[in-house]
Design goal:
The chain has a two-stranded antiparallel ribbon. The longest helix has 29 residues. The protein starts with a helix and ends in an 8-residue tail after the last helix. The protein has nine helices and two strands; from the N terminus they run H-H-E-E-H-H-H-H-H-H-H.
Length: 230
Amino acid sequence: MNEYLWIAMLLANFLFILLFYRLFGKTGLYIWIPIAAIVANIQVLKLVDIFGINATLGNIVYASSFLVTDILSENYGKKSAARAVLVGFLSLIASMCLFQAALWFQPSSDDWVQESMKNIFGLMPRIVLASLLAFGLSQIHDVWSYSFWKKKWPADRFIWVRNNASTMISQLIDSVVFTLVAFAGQFPKDVLLQIFLSTYLLKWIVALLDTPFIYLAVLMNRRGFIPEDI
């Protein structure tokens, strides 16, 4: 059951990105970055069994942010992609502050969600610190690497090369940094290793499968289906 849901969520993420892009242009891609960053940081707290491995849930939506920065790099250049990374940084910081502030309020005697919020958002500072480091290092590498490969092999037939060459190494950086900062000391070493391997494997699969969608995004832009910035 989890496998079918994972595939459905994967497809939904890619289609939502294209929908946002189609309706709002480049702005829509900037909108998706904070959605991916915030949702992933909540979903990552849930462990699931999928394809016979133990993995964190937030892999798909987080990995989709790399597709967004690659579309920005391909269609608008390195500066636009770097701006999206900054949007992601600020979104994580703002969400952490607001979530923590919500926990400081004294709940009403009729409240029934405070403890649940503590379980989720009480872990947010460490998760967000891990995300900030992982997101920053991996996305900076991704933007740089995509630009590097685009200059080396600029032809359209090599879009798949620069998309995958940049994203798969960036995902490795992201998985190493996030797993160590977020979960070191929280799980036994064997579980920690399994989380890292499963996280990277699933992100690698997402990176591989997003290739047709970057081609679609490029085609949509060149055919004039994408609106001007709003």
